[in-house]
Amino acid sequence: MFIREGEKILLGYKKRGFGQGRWNGFGGKVEPGETPEQAAIRETKEEAGVDLSVGAVEKVGELEFTFEGEDILMHVMVYASGSYQGTPAESEVARHRTPGMLRLCDLLHTCKIKA
């Protein structure tokens, strides 16, 4: 899940597991009885502490890949939202930059003016 508001994006810095030591969107495995969209909303709540509305989430892509030296094909659905409710909070999985959201240009090191 990627949450964008204008030129800013909410990301989590993964403390453990897949993506450890990197800024990531939020997500994880689909639980039995869940749709991929429901899983993205649940995982975002668990990892970032924010709520998303089902109608405010959009599927924006699908990826398939393998890791070098491994035979397992990963299938990932990518979701995005332009809004959330609540205040981002650190979880056992991810911490967040404070205050607020990162500017996309900060991630790409292309900002002309520092925040």
CATH class identity: Alpha Beta
| The CATH homologous superfamily | Nucleoside Triphosphate Pyrophosphohydrolase
Structural class: alpha+beta
Binned, the helix content reads 10-25%
CATH-level-2 architecture: Alpha-Beta Complex
Beta content comes to 25-35%
Number of domains: 1
Mean of residue pLDDT?
Answer: 83
Note poorly predicted spans: none
Number of helices: 2
Radius of gyration: 15 Å
Widest sheet: strand order?
5-6-1-2-8
Succession of helices and strands: EEEEHEEEEH
Structure notes:
The chain has helices at residues 36-48, 104-108; strands spanning 2-5, 8-10, 12-14, 23-24, 57-65, 74-81, 94-95, 102-103. It is of the alpha+beta class and 115 residues long. The protein has a single domain (2-108), classed as Nucleoside Triphosphate Pyrophosphohydrolase. The strands form two sheets. It has a five-stranded mixed sheet. A three-stranded antiparallel sheet has the order 4-3-7, with no helix packed on it. A hairpin with an 8-residue loop joins strand 5 (57-65) and strand 6. The radius of gyration is 15 Å and the shape is globular. The model has no long low-confidence stretch (mean pLDDT 83).
